[in-house]
Amino acid sequence: MNLFFSEENLEFIQPDLPDADVLYYPSFFSEKEATTYFKMLQKETVWRQDDIKLFGKTYPQPRLTALYGSDTKSYSYSGITMFPTPFTPTLLEIKTRIETVVEKKFNTVLLNLYRDGNDSNGWHSDDEQELGKNPCIASVSLGVERPFHLKHKQEKNLTYKIPLSHGSLFIMRGTTQHFWKHQLPKSKRIITPRINLTFRTLI
Ligand SMILES: O=C(O)CCC(=O)C(=O)O
Ligand SMILES: [Fe+2]
After folding, report:
1. Of 6, 61, 81, 170, which one has the fewest beta carbons inside 10 Å?
2. Which residue is closest in CA terms to ligand 1's atom 4?
3. Best of 112, 115, 124, 202 for a ligand 1 pocket test (most atoms within 8 Å of beta carbon)
């Protein structure tokens, strides 16, 4: 585990995972900023619950989602096609803060609302064609802390677990999506919500 400070004097860790490039900023936003953003996004966002198809059966997705972006390119995953709503001022503010530190521009954000520990996000890679070859995904966590898991696709005993705290930023880039899957498992004892924003670039 390697601890560093960014040019903005933000603390971050860079876990040493083979075939991956991930960074974690535990306090990217202050407690107060994170709480303000959580409240604004919970209220302002047009949340929806899509159905997903798994092995020919249809289920409601175990979380609410929304897609915002700067152009009209659609984004498809798990048989769902989403068309982005224009970025709101709140989302643009968050996006700018992230772009300064990540030194990358994003044109889309997928939001997830996990209403409680029964909501989840199953094992997947963010490897859709529209994300390009080595996508950089910047993931902001607001609200209750939830564990995030990664596992290597070939080396089954290579796993990594990290709790994503309120106001944190987790970045996955390089070959991470080729070699690793990630999930946000159900956490039965959690009864409060979490909002996640994943900034992406659709090409
Ligand atoms: O909620 C999270 O931290 C993960 C979200 C995620 O993996 C996704 O939306 O692709
Ligand atoms: Fe993902």
Report:
1. 81
2. 184
3. 112
Looking at the CA of residue 77, tell me the nearest atom of ligand 1.
Answer: 10
Distance CA 187, CA 192 (A): 11
| Res 80 pLDDT > 90 | no
Which pLDDT belongs to residue 1?
Answer: 67
How far is it, in rounded angstroms, from Cα 158 to Cα 180? Answer: 9
CA of 41 from ligand 2 middle (Å) equals 19
Residue with tokens 């876990």: 15
**Sequence-ordered strand ranges (E) for the chain:** 3-5, 11-13, 21-25, 51-54, 57-60, 64-69, 75-77, 80-82, 85-86, 108-114, 121-124, 137-143, 146-152, 159-164, 168-173, 180-184, 194-200
Residue 99 has pLDDT above 80, yes or no: yes
Record: fold of 3-200: Jelly Rolls (2.60.120)
Q: Which atom of ligand 1 is the closest one to the Cα of 146?
A: 3
The domain segmentation of the chain, as residue ranges, is 3-200
Q: Which residue has the tokens 């530190």?
A: 101
Q: Residue 64 is encoded by which pair of tokens?
A: 């609410």
